[in-house]
Amino acid sequence: MNRNVSTFTLIRYAVGYVFIASAIMKLIVSDFTHVFAGLGLPYPQMIVLIVGITELACGILIVLNHYVRKATIPLLVIMIAALLLTKLPIIQTGFFQFAFEARLDIVMIILLYILWKK
Asked: Cα dihedral sign for 107, 21, 36, 73?
């Protein structure tokens, strides 16, 4: 029995896990609406629901290795929007503070790009 797991598969599992866990939190925890409202986004309840369902569906598709390339596109949009809305304003406090706060967003964008490119 072959137990070797490819790097691509590990990336799929890690990315899928992150987005599935994030989606569950958005869909279950009511405080997430306040986070989105605090960003000044209109209709925060609807946006949380749309983002949560999108993350859940795309995360599952990525884990199951179905439509991986197509599933990465909405997640890239979500991650870039999150970076611009929540992390870019931090750059005013200094580049290193921004780099620290944005590190996970940047890693997820890179991993999504790798999945999209393959």
From this structure: positive
What is the rounded CA–CA span in Å between residue 36 and residue 43? 9
Residue with tokens 């921004």: 98
| 2 domain residue, yes or no | no
The boundaries of the domain holding residue 85 are 7-117
Q: Is residue 63 part of a domain?
A: yes
Number of folded domains that form the chain: 1
Residue 1, domain member (yes or no) = no
Domain assignment present for residue 56? The answer is: yes
Tens-of-pLDDT digits for all 118 residues of the chain? 567 889 999 999 999 999 999 999 999 987 888 888 888 889 999 999 999 999 999 999 999 999 999 999 999 999 999 999 999 999 999 999 999 999 999 999 999 999 999 8
Phi-psi region of 29 (alpha: psi -120 to 50; beta: other; left: phi over 0): beta
Specify the pTM.
Answer: 0.92
